[in-house]
Amino acid sequence: MKKILILGVGAQGSTVAQRMDEEPNVSEIICADYDEKAVSELVGILKKGKGMKVDASDIESIKAAAEGVDLIVNGLPLQFGKNVLEAALAVKTNYQDFAATESIHKDWVEGIKIMYDEYGKRFKEIGKTAVIATGSAPGLICAAARRTMQYLDTCDTIYNIVYEGVEAKRFLPFWWSPVTALSDMGGIPNAFENGEMIQTEPFGRPIYRTYDYVGKEIRFVEHDHDEPVHMGLNAKEFFKGAKNIYFKYAGSGVTFAEPIYRAGLLSKVPEEIDGQQVIPFNVVLKHIPPAPKYRDEIKEIIEEGLVTDSGAMVVEAIGEKDGKKIKVETHVFAPGLIESFKRAGITSEMYLTGQGGALFTKMFVEDKFTQTGLISSDMLTFDQVDYYIKCAEKLDITLDTKVTELK
């Protein structure tokens, strides 16, 4: 029987808690956050839940909550990642997060390398496993990318493609944390190109795709995201020697953010306006509504009506099989907003990211991780990928793969 600590009871953490509440191999779920009201509301709907207040800026506070647990699931903002990693090592337990922390090094890519090398060594020394980047993207999409490798002998190029097509009638540009969304929108994207990590221009280098289930041509652009970094660093061992790996993004959030980025309004550098020091990013953020997370709020948005309720998550991998050049295209299908609300009273963003993360937690609970040290979600074995996908299907998250020979 496993005891789990979930740090951060927002959309991701609360979904994982509810999923684990159904797992027979879980004895206790400690739900911890600085927001005591949020903790209380979550624990109130769990059979195995216990609430605690934790100050994530204080490692000792995290350690106190983590004593005796088998796994820490970190659903906190990225700046607390280093503290949680250190606490997990101190109490000698396993670790999981939804996106790699930015608090290890001022250069995020260098921070990832440190996590693989130094933290990987430290977790291995205590015989424990840390799995990072386990949401939907990164996370689920990484499992899909690993699956495409089963169809190839060698790989040249991988495109990770995401379209956020759910749009409400009210002003609601983001269905997840606005500060995270805007930071990513204004961040410098990384790509793995010709075997090297490079930086690209936000919203640059567009590609165009048409998917029959969306019904229109979509313009996808460069975006600051994890996949090219993780997969690029792991290309030789896990992605059949891929030389080019990209993340391409589209949707209502991109449509909203691109012009304000072009206008300089996502800058975090103070500037003087009419004698006042102003940070443009903070001004924009002040006017963005928070992502909906409560049942009544989501119900109200749906009843007001939606502009669109669609989306796409696709991995395209181009390489060779039996001497022939082929493209392997894997589409991820999952419930949309209306269906997610009917099923669980949550948004489709909460459903996909939370359920995607919960499946990695389930793998911990069922002892499916044979690795020790630190890995990211793109480093699963093929057996682990197959198990993950099998479990996902039970949540109506399915993968459809098409192989095409290229001339």
UniProtKB/TrEMBL annotation:
Domain Saccharopine dehydrogenase NADP binding: residue ranges: 4-131
Superkingdom, taxonomy of origin: Bacteria
A Pfam match: Sacchrp_dh_NADP
N-terminal signal peptide: none
Family annotation (InterPro entries): NAD(P)-bd_dom_sf, Sacchrp_dh_NADP-bd
Protein name: Saccharopine dehydrogenase NADP-binding domain-containing protein
Species assigned in the record: Hominibacterium faecale
Phylogenetic classification of the source organism: Bacteria, Bacillati, Bacillota, Clostridia, Peptostreptococcales
